[in-house]
């Protein structure tokens, strides 16, 4: 398993909104380096913080989020996300 899938095609409509939710969750400053991966079957996006100590925020169309640390590979995080795992909303509220 690889840490990241191949680079995605250009984002579809709505992906920008989900990307912004992921960036906000990760607490990223404007211009911070991220990779955005559109998930299969319209399941959302994964915002991957680049650089050391980063993490991944899988964002569903309803803007619920699963955060996984950088040590977890992409496929494992994706399987958990598609299986319904989410980070509690309270965790997000505490970060803002």
* Mean model confidence by pLDDT: 84
Main beta sheet: 4 strands, antiparallel
The domain tally reads: 1
- The amount of beta strand, in percent, is 15-25%
Radius of gyration, in Å, reads 12 Å
Reading the helices and strands in chain order gives HEEEEHH
Structural class: alpha+beta
Judging from the principal axes of the Cα atoms, what is the shape? globular
Poorly predicted runs are none
Notes on the structure:
The chain has 96 residues and is an alpha+beta fold. The N and C termini lie far apart (34 Å). Strands 1-2-3-4 form a 4-stranded antiparallel sheet, with helices on both faces. The chain has one domain (15-95). It is 29% helix and 21% strand.
Topology (SSEs and partners):
Layout: H1 15-26, E1 34-38, E2 45-49, E3 55-59, E4 65-69, H2 74-82, H3 89-95
Antiparallel strand pairs: 1-2, 2-3, 3-4
TL;DR of this structure?
The protein has 96 residues and is an alpha+beta fold.
